């Protein structure tokens, strides 16, 4: 089967060429007219994470269903709706009801197949199969997950869906990161095999037996957010007999071509912020013609004033009913106000690169420690799922912030054992940790395992080499999750060390107890730096070259984003410090005259703009009652 990627320019050129040849030769050129072609839409929704409504109460599911429904009506016999995994875990309503409301929404929308995500293991795979997916109108496909007991695949590796006479095979797969990103007890009975080998094997079988006209890979695997590199592209560049790849996991917007194989690659962001609409044509002689994938045409954003953030968005009434019924069951619990955040958004933004503290990370690790009267507390970065917006803090807010049912393990650890944990926390590709009760320094330029330079109590007093400290840590991490195996040597695998205190419950109880102690912010919005990277914060010198500045480390210029003494700077590929507006990975940033990244309201060229806490320019939205247009300019 031949795959062709087309663009409007190429079609116009070929059409002109055909007409020219016909006129010159007086012979008609035999081609495939539009009537001989069938146009299909493949819709992907991925990493929905239970987001029936967003943290501001906007109707995410209702708008998503309305837009996909309209698209499906326009091409009803030739639209295929897919899920990229991680559909359920994430919101209070979905977690409390074990994903059932989300499953009902996706079934109503018309989803037919989904990949298996790593978060489908969070309640145990049996729960996902027997509760979340019970009565679902769609099914899971996964080619690389095997049972250790039977040696067989847990799910069908592929399914074939027929649309208007065309057979479309969907081969599923799941990231092998699941082995370390899920509580070990939930993955110990499964083997995660190589994605490329398994998909290629299944695709070869489909081709050899002529089972399908089109073959799609649907995998819960992500990229680096640059629309060009990362595990999903590594996979796509090693696949054979595959016509397109749909991914997930990384929560990124992706629509482009794999460089080696020219296979279209897509990821539909996350949390209902948008969806992928990949269009292709199949001619009467089975040639597949995908529209050239790009973010402008292939990705449909919904997290804007034209989507679910509109003042009165168009929604699907049937979906609204599903969401409303689910919320009625949990509202008496989740709508209880337990605190206030009247100042500004509480964030998980790190104050150091690549690993640092954050406002919410400090708070979460503090509460984890104090809940069991420990001397040291840890929280894994991946367990904290949202920034907390301005307004009332409710029980539901805490379910969104900490959707996992992690309990606190209380361990006894020496300074040397703490160092081993912290070395894993600052290693290359680590997920990172938040700390409480201690502070430490490290140098990211040193060899892994030798980066931690100092560890003290948070007040600066020394920790004796021979003393043992009580340490509070989430059970997931204690058992070696996120590759923090050092905890397993200190009793992390001993269930006797489980205090059975649910971390989310500890957060909720703390907020209740401190709700009225500060009428502005129940949770402090002051960042306390508990980890310092000596490799970026204090090492290096500025060098002036005429009208440009460069930052030198070890005699070499640095490039890209750099955190220098707690402030972010952007250097181009030659090391020159950037100022004014700069676009990076599709997002706009404003660098002040001194090179530092701007945040908050910023006045530039006679206009006001708002830069988010991570520096990205806000656009087509409303901030504190002020409307910003699509260019990011404040509307007067």
How many helix segments? Answer: 16
Major beta sheet summary: 8 strands, mixed
User: Taking Cα atoms only, what radius of gyration do you get, to the nearest Å?
Assistant: 26 Å
Q: Give the terminus-to-terminus CA distance.
A: 55 Å
Which structural class fits the helix and strand makeup? alpha/beta
Shape: globular
Taken as a percent bin, the fraction of beta residues is: 25-35%
List low-pLDDT spans.
Answer: 1-34
What's the count of strands? 37
- Mean pLDDT, as a whole number? 90
Helix content: 10-25%
Q: What would your notes on this structure say?
A:
With 636 residues, this protein is of the alpha/beta class. The chain contains 16 helices and 37 strands. The protein is globular, with a radius of gyration of 26 Å.
Key words describing this protein structure:
636 residues, 24% helix, alpha/beta, 8-stranded mixed sheet, disordered N terminus, 6-stranded mixed sheet
Layout of helices and strands, plus pairs?
Layout: E1 3-6, H1 8-25, E2 38-45, H2 60-74, E3 79-83, H3 92-96, H4 100-109, E4 113-114, H5 125-132, E5 139-140, E6 145-147, E7 158-163, E8 166-174, H6 178-181, E9 190-192, H7 195-208, E10 214-220, H8 231-236, E11 244-247, E12 253-257, E13 264-268, E14 274-282, E15 288-291, H9 295-298, E16 299-301, H10 317-334, E17 337-341, H11 359-371, E18 376-380, E19 391-394, H12 395-401, E20 407-414, H13 415-425, E21 433-436, E22 438-442, E23 452-457, E24 468-474, H14 475-478, E25 498-502, H15 503-514, E26 531-533, H16 534-537, E27 541-545, E28 548-553, E29 556-557, E30 560-564, E31 567-571, E32 580-584, E33 587-591, E34 600-604, E35 607-611, E36 621-623, E37 626-628
Parallel strand pairs: 1-15, 2-3, 3-4, 4-5, 8-10, 10-11, 11-13, 18-24, 22-26
Antiparallel strand pairs: 2-14, 6-9, 7-8, 12-13, 14-15, 14-16, 17-19, 18-21, 20-24, 20-25, 22-23, 27-28, 28-29, 30-31, 32-33, 34-35, 36-37
Helix pairs in contact: 2-4, 4-10, 11-15
């Amino acid at each position: 089967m031949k795959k062709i990627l087309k663009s409007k320019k190429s079609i116009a050129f070929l059409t002109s060429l055909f007409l020219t040849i016909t006129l010159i030769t007086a012979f008609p050129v035999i081609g495939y007219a539009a009537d001989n072609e069938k146009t299909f839409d493949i819709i992907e929704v991925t990493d929905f994470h239970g987001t029936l409504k967003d943290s501001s109460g906007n109707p995410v599911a209702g708008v998503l269903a309305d837009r996909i429904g309209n698209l499906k009506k326009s091409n009803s016999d030739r639209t295929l709706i897919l899920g990229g995994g991680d559909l359920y875990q994430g919101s209070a309503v979905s977690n409390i009801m074990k994903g059932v409301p989300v499953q009902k929404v996706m079934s109503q929308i018309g989803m037919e197949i989904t990949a298996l995500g790593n978060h489908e293991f969070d309640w145990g795979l049996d729960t996902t199969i027997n509760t979340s997916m019970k009565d679902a109108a769609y099914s899971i496909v996964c080619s690389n997950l095997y049972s250790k007991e039977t040696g067989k695949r847990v799910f069908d590796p592929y399914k074939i869906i027929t649309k208007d006479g065309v057979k479309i095979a969907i081969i599923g797969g799941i990231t092998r990161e699941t082995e370390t990103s899920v509580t070990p007890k939930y993955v110990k009975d499964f083997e995660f095999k190589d994605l490329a080998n398994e998909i290629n094997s299944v695709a070869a079988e489909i081709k050899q037996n002529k089972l399908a006209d089109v073959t799609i890979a649907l995998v819960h695997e992500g990229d680096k957010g640059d629309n060009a590199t990362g595990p999903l592209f590594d996979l796509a560049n090693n696949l054979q007999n595959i016509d397109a790849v749909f991914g997930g996991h990384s929560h990124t917007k992706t629509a482009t071509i794999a460089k080696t194989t020219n296979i279209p690659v897509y990821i539909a962001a996350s949390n209902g912020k948008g969806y992928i609409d990949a269009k292709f044509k199949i001619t009467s002689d089975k040639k597949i013609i995908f529209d050239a994938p790009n973010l402008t045409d292939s990705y449909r954003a919904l997290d804007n004033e034209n989507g679910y953030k509109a003042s009165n968005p168009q929604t699907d009434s049937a979906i609204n009913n599903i969401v409303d019924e689910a919320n009625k069951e949990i509202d008496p619990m989740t709508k209880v106000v337990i605190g206030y955040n009247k100042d500004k958004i509480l964030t998980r933004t790190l104050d150091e690169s690549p690993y640092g503290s954050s406002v919410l990370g400090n708070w979460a690790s503090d509460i984890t420690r104090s809940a069991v009267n420990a001397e040291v507390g840890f929280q894994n970065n991946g367990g904290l799922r949202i920034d907390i917006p301005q307004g009332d803090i409710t029980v539901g807010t805490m379910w969104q912030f900490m959707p996992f049912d992690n309990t606190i393990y209380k361990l006894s650890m020496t300074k040397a054992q703490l160092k081993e944990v912290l070395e894993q926390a600052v290693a290359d590709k680590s997920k990172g940790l938040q700390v409480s009760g201690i502070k430490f320094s490290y140098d990211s330029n040193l060899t892994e395992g030798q980066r931690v330079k100092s560890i003290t109590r948070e007040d600066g007093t020394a920790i004796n080499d021979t003393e043992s400290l009580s340490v509070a840590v989430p059970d997931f991490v204690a058992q070696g999750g996120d590759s923090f195996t050092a905890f397993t040597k200190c009793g992390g695998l001993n269930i006797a060390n489980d205090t059975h205190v649910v971390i989310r419950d500890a957060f909720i109880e703390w907020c209740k107890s401190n709700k009225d102690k500060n009428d502005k912010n129940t949770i402090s919005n002051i960042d306390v730096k508990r980890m310092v990277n000596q490799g970026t914060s204090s090492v290096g010198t500025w060098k002036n070259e005429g009208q440009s500045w460069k930052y030198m480390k070890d005699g070499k210029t640095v490039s890209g984003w750099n955190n220098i003494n707690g402030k972010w700077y952007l250097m181009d590929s030659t090391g020159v410090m950037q100022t004014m507006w700069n676009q990076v990975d599709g997002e706009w940033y404003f660098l002040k005259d001194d090179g530092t990244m701007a945040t908050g309201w910023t006045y530039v060229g006679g206009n006001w703009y708002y830069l988010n806490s991570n520096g990205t320019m806000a656009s087509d939205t409303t901030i504190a009652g002020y409307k910003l247009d699509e260019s990011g300019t404040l509307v007067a």
